[in-house]
């Protein structure tokens, strides 16, 4: 199965909780009560129309790489494990490091698992859903350096190995091995790492899969996103907006394709609308009616190109929904909750560790 589902599962378990510890733009010193090492185990349960019920756990530890560094956020290391009732499973090891007074940021993760999913295409029996299964292993390392105030530049390398078999032989079984080299830029002016009430978080990523680096075919991908946040109602609530794009050029392998759903547009969980690239726009209102609880309302629209079903290209795919939030920690603005959303001929329920973006 393609890397997008794997990344969705993995990032849901791991990196949505990676920045929960403190405000990014503050220089707080550790108090006597602050723990040098903070260990937590986060349970996970979810339902997806494609993967069915999902159960997992994320044991993790937060810590300072340098106890004298009062600027860098705490670093994070942990393990994520998950199982779904359609017999998919994964295990992952992840690290996110901040050091040299937040002048350097690094990420390393490795994930392996078996994933049973479905795709919608023109098969021998006409347009329909067809099941497939993939054994996948992904290893990735990223290093970023602060260039000027709030602007980071970096490089990354990602290895992927995928073995995919399709139901009724609607497509030949594939074994795909990819090596990607990445250049990226990050602009981060948020007033808090996890629950920002102001500022911008924007990324631009260029991924190359050259043949000389061990790839069977050459391909290029561009990822871009722009997230912005505004406080409202006497700074009790937040308006958040997101524009994102994932663009594949060249010979995009099946495992490299994108599908509508997940972080960009909620309300799509059947993996029906897939293609070489996706554009999405969404907005969200975060209404906090008490210190511990809140509601969210969101809406968005997306489109795709390069779909195996040509009729799906460049059509509008809207999504709309509501959610409930509960503050899980006393000293940090970190919400857990649940979202329900509807899309075009689809719907989804999402258990949240943190906000969507």
What does this entry look like structurally?
The chain is mainly β and 357 residues long. The protein has 1 helix and 18 strands. The strands form 2 sheets. The protein has a 16-stranded antiparallel beta sheet, with helices on one face. A two-stranded antiparallel ribbon has the order 12-13. β17 (335-343) and β18 form a beta hairpin. Residues 1-33 have low confidence and may be disordered.
Mean pLDDT: 82
Kindly estimate the percentage of residues that lie in beta strands according to DSSP.
over 45%
Placed side by side, the strands forming the largest sheet appear as: 1-2-3-4-5-6-7-8-9-10-11-14-15-16-17-18
As residue ranges, the low-confidence spans are 1-33
Could you tell me how far the N terminus lies from the C terminus, measured between alpha carbons in angstroms?
24 Å
Order of helices and strands: HEEEEEEEEEEEEEEEEEE
Shape: globular
Largest sheet data = 16 strands, antiparallel
State Rg. Answer: 20 Å
Number of strands: 18
Number of helices: 1
> Structural class per helix/strand content?
mainly beta
Summarize the amount of helix as a percent range.
Answer: under 10%
């Amino acid at each position: 199965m393609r890397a997008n589902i794997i990344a969705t599962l993995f990032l849901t378990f791991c990196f949505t909780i990676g920045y929960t510890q403190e405000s990014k733009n503050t220089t707080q010193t550790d108090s006597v009560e602050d723990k040098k090492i903070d260990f937590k185990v986060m349970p996970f349960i979810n339902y997806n129309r494609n993967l069915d019920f999902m159960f997992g756990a994320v044991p993790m530890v937060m810590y300072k790489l340098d106890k004298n560094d009062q600027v860098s956020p705490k670093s994070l290391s942990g393990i994520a494990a998950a199982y779904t009732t359609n017999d998919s499973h994964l295990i992952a090891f992840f690290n996110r490091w901040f050091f040299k007074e937040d002048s350097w940021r690094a990420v390393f993760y490795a994930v392996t698992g078996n994933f049973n999913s479905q795709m919608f295409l023109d098969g021998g029996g006409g347009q329909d859903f067809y099941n497939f299964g993939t054994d996948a292993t992904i290893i990735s390392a990223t290093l970023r350096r602060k260039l000027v105030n709030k602007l980071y530049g970096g490089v990354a390398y990602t290895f992927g190995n995928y073995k995919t078999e399709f139901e009724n032989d609607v497509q030949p079984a594939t074994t795909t091995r990819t090596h990607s080299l990445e250049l990226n830029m990050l602009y981060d002016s948020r007033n808090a790492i996890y629950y920002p009430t102001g500022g911008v978080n924007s990324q631009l990523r260029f991924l190359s899969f050259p043949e000389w680096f061990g790839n069977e075919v050459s391909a290029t991908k561009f990822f871009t996103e722009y997230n912005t946040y505004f406080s409202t109602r006497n700074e009790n609530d937040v308006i958040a907006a997101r524009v994102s794009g994932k663009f594949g050029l060249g010979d995009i392998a099946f495992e490299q394709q994108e599908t509508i759903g997940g972080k960009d547009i909620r309300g799509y969980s059947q993996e029906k609308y897939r293609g070489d690239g996706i554009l999405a726009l969404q907005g969200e209102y975060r209404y906090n009616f008490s210190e511990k609880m809140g509601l969210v309302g969101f809406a968005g629209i997306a489109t795709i190109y390069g779909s195996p079903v040509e009729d799906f290209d460049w059509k509008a795919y809207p999504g709309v929904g509501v959610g409930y939030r509960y503050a899980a920690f006393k000293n940090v603005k970190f919400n857990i909750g649940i979202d329900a959303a509807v899309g075009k001929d689809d719907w989804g329920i999402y258990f949240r560790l943190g906000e969507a973006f």
